[in-house]
């Protein structure tokens, strides 16, 4: 008999406390790094993301050979902030803020300063699917 209805002894005070504590906790988990499911900058995406450079493309500036980023606005391939920061530099110069990582296929928005969920955001599907296909030789297992 563990789950008695709340009409037994001393119920209402405990329930009120629980309800009050749950509400502020629910909305206060900011700061946690989680992929966003929307972004205000998707209008700047390239119109054709089904034709993109292969994942082993070198950085266009320093020829770094792998794990580069693809600019999803102009399809330039540039190295990461852990190499020579050419993708970051490109963002500062051109304001192209959306980039796909060829190392793990994550999508980053420099303006939002956040990862974007490429499997949820419809306009990112072509880039994600094409990159996945190029990298692994098969279509991605899309969640639905
Ligand atoms: Zn570079
Ligand atoms: Zn660009
Ligand atoms: Zn954004």
How would you summarize this macromolecular structure in one to three sentences?
With 144 residues, this protein is an alpha+beta fold. The protein has a domain at 53-136: Zinc/RING finger domain, C3HC4 (zinc finger) (Herpes Virus-1, 2-Layer Sandwich), CATH 3.30.40.
Give an overview of the whole structure:
The chain is an alpha+beta fold. The protein has a domain at 53-136: Herpes Virus-1. Helices cover 26% and strands 10% of the residues. The chain has three helices and five strands. A five-stranded antiparallel β-sheet has the order 2-1-3-4-5. The radius of gyration is 22 Å and the shape is globular. The model is unreliable at 18-31 (pLDDT under 50). Bound molecules: zinc ion (ZN) (3 copies). One zinc ion binds next to loops.
Strand arrangement in the largest pleated sheet: 2-1-3-4-5
Helix content: 25-40%
Alpha-beta classification = alpha+beta
* Second-tier CATH architecture of the domain at 53-136: 2-Layer Sandwich
The low-pLDDT segments are 18-31
Organism: Olea europaea subsp. europaea
Keywords: Metal-binding, Zinc, Zinc-finger
GO molecular function, one term: zinc ion binding
Protein name: Histone deacetylase 6
């Amino acid at each position: 008999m563990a789950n008695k209805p709340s009409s037994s002894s001393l119920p209402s005070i405990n329930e009120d406390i629980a309800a009050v504590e749950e509400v502020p906790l629910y909305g206060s988990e900011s700061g946690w790094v989680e992929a966003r499911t929307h972004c205000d900058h998707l209008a700047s995406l390239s119109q054709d993301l089904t034709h993109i450079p292969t994942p082993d493309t070198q950085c266009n500036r320093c020829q770094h050979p792998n794990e580069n980023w693809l600019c999803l606005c102009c399809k330039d391939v540039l190295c990461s902030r852990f190499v020579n920061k050419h993708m970051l530099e490109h963002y500062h110069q051109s304001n192209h803020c959306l980039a796909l990582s060829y190392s793990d296929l994550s999508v980053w928005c420099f303006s939002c300063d956040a990862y974007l969920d490429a499997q949820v955001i419809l306009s990112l599907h072509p880039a994600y699917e094409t990159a996945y296909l190029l990298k692994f030789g098969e279509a991605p297992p899309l969640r639905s």
